[in-house]
Sequence to fold (183 residues):
Amino acid sequence: MIAQTVIKIRILGDPVLRKKVKTVKNVIPEYKEILSKMAEAMYAGQGIGLAAPQVGINEAMIVADVGTGLYKLINPKIVARVGRQAQEEGCLSIPGICVKVKRAKKIKVQAQDENGIPISVNAEDLLACVFQHEIDHLKGRLIVDYASFFEKLKLKKKLKELMERSKDEKLSESEAKSCQLQL
Fold:
């Protein structure tokens, strides 16, 4: 079972990061453990959000905590967007890379909680940014996809080096965390 395996954050180059996830049809008790392990991995990486594909799970689940409490969401969907904001974002799966991303300032997310109960969350500012970032992961979209042509040229060498690193090779803390927002 997935819940009994060690959860490890996948790094750019892992094909799971580019796959569109499956919708969770039936919320089973095992998902509570998976979401808890995802939260542990997020906190261990000093992140504020994590999506299931980032730990090799091809199902629609995310966790997020911007300091106001932990959200564990299954099948999250954005149903409303208002306003605009742009922030430098980092990603636990693309350590050392920051990209300025334009997103909605306020959103409404509908999902299920870890017990399968439908919930609705109104989020703004940082929490809205985190939810949008993590929901992007569920669609196989990464922050580097938001980079302009010229930004991509500047990042090309760094991204290539990141993908060529050994899967077990650790980045130094300064390399891994060059953005304030690690999602």
Summary: Helices lie at 30-44, 125-138, 149-164, 173-176. The domain at 2-176 is CATH 3.90.45.10 (Peptide Deformylase). The chain has one domain: 2-176. The two ends are 26 Å apart (CA to CA).
